[in-house]
């Protein structure tokens, strides 16, 4: 992805903070903490949440440029803008730092009803505390104890709320709520960080209601650039029918997106978008793939 500013003549005086190098961002409550998985209790629902990250094949050593967090019933994914690597800066430093700070800021709204401005305020405050150089996209989703969903999405990461059919076939999934990507131009998303004119207030806000049986997905564009919504639902149908946990669902979708990204001859959403922009691209788009999957389970 491209940096949304001309910064090459200024980058010489900026260095990434050496302390911000953690590869895994997870915050979850008390005894529910797991390695990559957390289980939260709400009044009406239980939430089984897990994230899987598959770095770009060339970025395995650094852990890639995506980040995520799960804090109670608030979730987030972040995608570092890869254009910073051309300036010798690891884009993952900024995205991971922003994930850590945002997780701290949303702690006060766990289980409560969250207004749109709560998520924007948390993201802006978190941004002000990050000292690393870079920019990234951000998608935040909060689920309240009553089942209301509030989301804020800035850039080309995003979320999908999937609901199983109550008729035949019983495990067929439909998208009931989705975010839309925000781009200044092709492959240049809205982004937070150094030199960007975008802020959390520029993000799109969404609201909805979840019910038991729903799947909430937060993904970076390594998924949506390579899989259509139909293909996303197909990748999840099998493990969902087998009653597998969120971690298995996230792993199945991440693997499908990763495999698709490496196929040069297939059609892909990214190739279609490139063609619409007057550019030529064939096949998938190799990228970091992050899937944060939340299963909404009956609280009883």
Describe, in plain words, how this protein is organized in 3D.
The structure is a single chain. The protein has helices at 91-105, 116-129, 221-224, 229-241, 246-261, 269-276, and strands at residues 37-41, 45-54, 66-71, 74-80, 135-143, 148-154, 158-164, 173-178, 183-185, 188-189, 192-193, 204-209, 215-219, 289-298. It has six helices and 14 strands. The strands form three sheets. A six-stranded antiparallel sheet has the order 1-2-14-13-7-8. Strands 3, 4, 5, 6, 11 and 12 form a six-stranded antiparallel sheet that branches. Strands 9-10 form a two-stranded antiparallel ribbon.
Short recap of the structure:
This protein is an alpha+beta fold and 300 residues long. The chain has six helices and 14 strands. Helix 1 (91-105) crosses helix 2 (116-129) and helix 4 (229-241) packs antiparallel against helix 5.
Observed structural traits:
single chain, 300 residues, alpha+beta, six-stranded antiparallel β-sheet, 6 helices, 23% helix, 28% strand
Radius of gyration: 18 Å
* Separation, N- and C-terminal Cα atoms: 44 Å
Strand order of the largest sheet: 1-2-14-13-7-8
Helical content class: 10-25%
- Report the biggest beta sheet as strand number plus sense, adding barrel if it closes: 6 strands, antiparallel
- Return residue spans where pLDDT drops below 50 for at least 5 consecutive residues: 4-42
- Helix and strand pattern: EEEEHHEEEEEEEEEHHHHE
What global shape is seen?
A: globular
Query: Which structural class do the helices and strands define?
Result: alpha+beta
What is the number of E strands?
14
> Approximately how much beta-strand content do the residues carry?
25-35%
Number of helical stretches of at least 4 residues: 6
Mean pLDDT: 85
